Amino acid sequence: MAASGTAAPRCLVQYIVVRSDLVHTLSWSLGAVISQACHAATAAIHLNYNDPDTQEYLAELDSMHKVVLQALDQASLSSLSETLTEKGVAHKLWIEQPENVPTCLALKPYPKDTVHPLLHKFKLFK
Predict the structure, then answer these.
(1) Contacts of residue 93, Cβ cutoff 8 Å, sequence gap at least 6
(2) Does the pTM exceed 0.70?
(3) How far apart are CA 108 and CA 92, in angstroms?
(4) pLDDT at 5
(5) Contacts 24+ apart (CB under 8 A), 57-61
(6) Going by DSSP bridges, is the β-strand pair 12-19/65-71 parallel, antiparallel, or unpaired?
(7) Residue 76's closest CA among 115, 119, 36?
(8) Which InterPro entries match (predicted)?
């Protein structure tokens, strides 16, 4: 419970969308895929470090919320990135080098209701 006169922190979420075909079709190891998600999340935070939502998110290190969703393949991931760009949603599309393969993307931290409608068709990563 927040102390009297102080507001409770908002629930900010960092969404990460990972291609599920990397594991299920292309046989990437789970560790390799997790590292892709880590790269994207770190890059999104770095690129948006001075954003007020990012600063608030980082101020609550023990209360971070991340949601990892799955895109079926490269086409669906790229389409999502284009939609997010069109809507002005800050994100980082991670492209693994030197292979030049888009593997995942991460949004900067947002209040859940702000971006959730854009991600409703993506299910939790399995």
Answers:
(1) 40, 77, 78, 81, 102, 105
(2) yes
(3) 8
(4) 56
(5) 57/12, 57/14, 57/109, 59/9, 60/9, 60/12
(6) parallel
(7) 119
(8) Pep_tRNA_hydro_II_dom_sf, PTH2, PTRHD1
- Record the tokens describing residue 109, joined without a space: 């931290």
pLDDT for residue 1: 45
Residue closest to 77 by CA, chosen among 4, 19, 28, 14: 19
| Phi, psi angles (nearest 5°) of residue 55 | -65, -40
**Rg of the chain over all Cα atoms, to the nearest angstrom:** 15
Question: Identity (one letter) of the amino acid at 88?
Answer: G
The residue behind tokens 């102390």 is: 3
Tell me the domains of the chain and their CATH numbers.
Answer: 12-124 (3.40.1490.10)
